[in-house]
Write a structure and sequence with these properties.
Two copies of one chain form a homodimer.
Chain A: E1 15-18, H1 27-44, H2 51-65, H3 72-79, H4 86-100, H5 109-118, E2 122-128, H6 131-141, E3 149-153, H7 158-168, E4 175-179, H8 182-192, E5 195-199, E6 210-212, H9 218-224
Parallel strand pairs in A: 1-2, 1-4, 2-3, 4-5, 5-6
Chain lengths: 225, 225
Amino acid sequence: MEGSNPALVSGVVKAVLFDIDNTLFPSNDFAELARRNAITAMIGAGLTADADEVYNKLCKVIGRYGPNYPKHFNALLKELGVKTNPKIIAAGIFAYHQAKRGISPYADVPKTIMHLRKRGYRICVASQGRALKQWDKLIRLGLHNMFHEVFVTPRKSKRFYRSILKKLKLNPREVMMVGDNIETDIKPARQLGIITVLVAPKHSMKGADYTVKNIGELPRIMERL
Amino acid sequence: MEGSNPALVSGVVKAVLFDIDNTLFPSNDFAELARRNAITAMIGAGLTADADEVYNKLCKVIGRYGPNYPKHFNALLKELGVKTNPKIIAAGIFAYHQAKRGISPYADVPKTIMHLRKRGYRICVASQGRALKQWDKLIRLGLHNMFHEVFVTPRKSKRFYRSILKKLKLNPREVMMVGDNIETDIKPARQLGIITVLVAPKHSMKGADYTVKNIGELPRIMERL
């Protein structure tokens, strides 16, 4: 890991934490694409059902079992009243991963991260989920070598952000958290005094210190601090 | 599933069963490629170790836990005395699958299967392993729509081949089994009276009714029956 150069850091912020899903890349868009791709393949492999009905049932199944359950497609066939069938399930999994592996970062993300690194900030990930899955996303996004530190927790809480401050040996006002989710990215971080930036590409929302439409606006915020 | 046309079947054989690994594609070659690719990526992600030493330890770990154990790379790091690290493990898994997803059938396989189908034979898979994993291989090989039936068992035995005869409603002499493994593909099938063909691309081995270097030789054997 490289050290940051404190001499170059403008203002008080020394480290920037980034959420991954819907902050570094359009996770929801890809999730929908991958689900629809899987359903097309399952119908191609012999599943007799209406694609939109299957999509709604798949969303229901994922909602019920959570995103990390390993057998969504088995549960889906059960939900559809179809006997389990390895050809159909394998076709779905393959097509799902084909779509998912094509993930790309939001256009401004790589250049903004590299720009902030050059300016001397410590660039970190603060993400919720399973460490292996989140690292896999960073690898597929081609961002895995751009971060000084990657922090992953099962659940974002004040405790999680406090542990990051401790590991980085920084005060809250020296850290900026960037994310799309008010409840997990903004509230607990802001309560500790961390400077928060909400990424809201499609909607206007309140609750953070700053709100941006995309990551490319960050350098200008840094300059104003 | 299409039915076969009995009028076109030459001689007595009506169905041909194919093993998958090292029969339809060079599984061992791809396994070595994928393991070496994974190790290169893990070293790139920060693992400090000699690639050949890591390769030998990985083979040892896979031998110990079996091919379907889901945490080979965790066990590998433990074996190497390295603390578990999601970046290194995710890099290994990603590179492993990148190599594995590139599998292709032996050159003669698709055209021979299509030729035999045209001649009226029922073309089936008789494979050992997990159904989902074997279907995934057929999909990646682009062969998944070429088979009339796919039979997968955790362990090939006389009982497995007997259940196939029952499902196909055929006598042993009406069925041909094609595979590379004497113990699992040839012996139990031959004991039931199934006509056996050993695929031995690199070595000369005995124990089957026929031995071929590649699948492309099958039509000539059919003609002689």
